Known about the structure:
Oligomer: single chain
Helix content: 40-55%
Low-confidence stretches: none
Bound molecules: nicotinamide-adenine-dinucleotide
Amino acid sequence: MSIQMKHLVVIGTGLIGGSVALALKRAGCVERITGVGRSVANLEEAVRLGVIDDFSHDIEKAVVDADMVLVAVPVAACEQVFEALAKSLPDKAVITDAGSTKQSVMASAERYLKHPSQFVPAHPVAGSEHSGAAAAFSELFEDKKCILTPNEQTDAKALAQVQALWEAVGARVKIMSAAEHDDVLAAVSHLPHLAAFAIVNAVGKSDHAFRLAAGGFRDFTRIASSSPEMWRDIALCNQSAIVDKIDALQEELSVLRDALKARDGDALLDKFASAKQARDKWMSKYGDKL
Ligand code: NAD
């Protein structure tokens, strides 16, 4: 199925919202894109860069004649966005989002939307540590995964339209439950971000250490340059799954610490070798699709 629409409203015209807008324009799928956001400077920049055609600060007014709405704000802000758009959204309009957590966003949609069945939750597994419309680019989702987490209530036609939207921007759509999404993403995305923030804070107390840091430190900590606001929201909205993953990491660190204190080289070798083997296998299987 291909997608064609008259009016798309992008609420949160940042890296993700802006990149979807650019990719849909490039694919010729949409006649007009309205951006909604908090910062006039960012929205003016988005118009200047051709990301959106016009903008508004008023969600209620912006969505009055929308065919589709993309909510691409930090996940904790979704609640107030759904509350505002529910007041004037046409019944036929389909809504999707880009949030990095899914159960919390779906609960907000359920609470506020008149027709929650028209909401198809999505998480494009693509991005970067940069923020704002100026960081957006149309190739961001090319051959990247986008996870959709519909439930039993989700309207089949809305699901097909949203799948077509994410495919039109170049993504490979995967469907799973919101609970599975949140658990897996806590392990492979949320935990590494928290670990990167923690390492930088632990090491960065001394400017001297930073001066000597090199490529390994840069690669490991790249994601610590991500938006603090976005990551505060992700952490709070997927709290219990992330706490479980932190516990598992702490257990692994304790094993390494004990082995080191006991100068047990065999135990260290075992742990390092099993991690290397697992990562090498993952890279050879999936590395060219990242
Ligand atoms: P961003 O900071 O680049 O853009 C977010 C935009 O939302 C900003 O322009 C901000 O002003 C606006 N905004 C915030 N609160 C708002 C509100 N209440 N009403 C209207 N606008 C509001 O962030 P992003 O990287 O584009 O992330 C957007 C969403 O996509 C987040 O939910 C994030 O979890 C998810 N996501 C991000 C990435 C990534 O790598 N950056 C990847 C996948 C999914």
